[in-house]
Amino acid sequence: MSEAAFEEVSVLSSIYCGGGEFQLVQQSAQGGLVVQINSTVGGERGPDVRLLFHLHPRYPSCPPAISVSSTGLSRSQCHTIRQKLLDQAAALPPEPMVHQLVEWLQCVEVTENCRGNKDEAEEEVREREKEEEEWTAVLSLDHIRSQNRYTSLLQRWTQQLQLAGRLLLGRSILVILQGARPNIKEFCRLLRTVKVDVDSSGKKCKERMMKVLTESPTSSSGGHGLQGFVVMNYKSLPQLTAAFQEINMTGLYQQIRPSLSD
């Protein structure tokens, strides 16, 4: 790493000394330096942006890699700003340039592409919130022959995908999941594509017969607060009903009851 790069980082930390303005994210001989600067586009009243500059070991002989993110701009608008910064960096002489790039961004004329379409940005925020919203789903499994293997896989997936769940073993085999909807969908994909069990001849098989009986936001399903992954056995419908009552999901149980075996 060049001495000029280290000197530039030291200067940047002095210039952007406000709370949260500057951070040295990474430093290594092989990977170089990564610095984060929180700034705005087009002056103080412009939208806030987070800039990541990756200074390669050969920097400033080669321009930095740049990443742009913002809660007030859409992804396409952040991409436009990033491309403008990369074009500006490519046009500068091979010398320390991060401060110049940030200053250029702060002073550049704010066009609609940079300031952003408010409706588009708000729509992306709503989509992110929807993805992060907690959902509850109930799955029906066809069979479990290799219980230890099957159960350990389900438990591992719930941990990896940050899901809480219940496995209810009885005449009907049910899996209750709570967590982010994309993670529940990934859990279902794994069930259908990974060999989780064995068939009647002892060969490993996938859970092709899995069905999603219901899925909805947790707030509307009535259930709340599942923790970990718990395996429960039941021998009768009253016991199954009691299991749903215990986790405050009686309404959910009424929705799936017509699909269950007596």
TrEMBL record:
Record-annotated RWD domain positions: 7-112
Localization per Swiss-Prot or TrEMBL: Cytoplasm; Nucleus
UniProt xrefs under PROSITE patterns: RWD
Keywords: Coiled coil, Cytoplasm, Nucleus
Highest taxon listed in the record's lineage: Eukaryota
Coiled-coil intervals: 111-138
One GO term of the biological process aspect: positive regulation of hypoxia-inducible factor-1alpha signaling pathway
GO cellular component: cytoplasm; nucleus
Signal peptide: none
Keyword Transmembrane: no
CDD domains xref list: RWD_RWDD3, RWDD3_C
Keyword Glycosyltransferase part of the UniProt annotation: no
PANTHER family: RWD DOMAIN-CONTAINING PROTEIN 3
Protein name: RWD domain-containing protein 3
Natural source organism: Liparis tanakae
